[in-house]
């Protein structure tokens, strides 16, 4: 029988069997085809009878079971991930909490004690420690702060301070809270405590006094450490940030800064001021929202400590570790609405006088630079605006 006839037997008569003894020539050809199509088989090569139909049936059976095997393997992997992954982690955020600013009562919470980097939300404690220095009289809002080379090299989000410049404390506070300027945070830390290390020590002492038991600060700005190890950077929890936020709302004028949406930095010192834009996109978008601070690093994710006041009631919402800004803002919006629906009717916030409506472009404080640069009138020179990444 020719090779063509052999092929016909395989294709059109698969039920016919071939014996190694009766057809030794055809056996060699069929062996080669068998290896090509089905792979080597010890039974066939040993001289046993071979049925193409049986082999085809076995092949299709294996093909049908592959999807089932894949599904089983995938289910096993997912089960392992669910077993070993921390129970505190979610896909949309790591942890969140909503509190009544008047009483500190918790309105809702989820993984409120998860410890994670706060990124630039760290600057809320920076603001508080600077405010303590202002209250103690060691600083004044118009105290001149000379920029150093170390301040200028801080990196990250900044107002591009130059060692030849000098700014008052208040101007740097606006840069801290609106622009989230890391260079301004370092300059304020040095002006308040004499050194970065001494200022961080004050931050941790203040946190301990407030009962922020899951918090450790290692910088005045929240940038990740040089080692990029999470354990060596700033760490806190949603609950601790809510405690810090309430302290700021009750005893400082933080809303004066956090509610400002747009402000120029460097007017009278620089030929072209930096236009600072608040990174909190809920200002003006959510009724009553007037603070407080956003933050982002790769390790921290997108974080936000927010507050809003309506009809004499004020709530605090903290969300940490969202995968992107839109997801974070969406959850904060939802939590704000849910929070106001749960605030007791008798709750009334009696903090310092606040401005609920976000403030637009504001007049800057007069700088105190030794030799201010002459600024060209606005009508004679176009305004250069710096566009920064959204947080």
Tell me what the structure shows.
With 391 residues, the protein is of the alpha+beta class. The chain folds into 2 domains: 3-82, no CATH class; 95-342, DD-peptidase/beta-lactamase superfamily (Beta-lactamase). Helix content is 40%, strand content 14%. The strands form 3 sheets. The protein has a 5-stranded antiparallel β-sheet with strand order 2-1-9-8-7, with helices on both faces. Strands 3-4 form a two-stranded antiparallel sheet. It has a two-stranded antiparallel ribbon with strand order 5-6. A hairpin with a 2-residue loop joins strand 8 (301-310) and strand 9. Helix 5 packs parallel to helix 8, helix 7 (169-179) packs antiparallel against helix 8 (182-193) and helix 8 packs across helix 9. It is globular and about 100 Å long. Mean pLDDT is 81; it is low at 1-18, 41-47, 81-88 and 363-387.
Brief characterization of the structure:
The chain is α+β, with helices and mostly antiparallel strands and 391 residues long. The protein has helices at 3-12, 24-38, 42-45, 52-84, 123-136, 149-152, 169-179, 182-193, 196-210, 238-251, 254-258, 325-342; strands at residues 95-100, 106-110, 144-146, 166-168, 262-265, 274-277, 289-297, 301-310, 313-322.
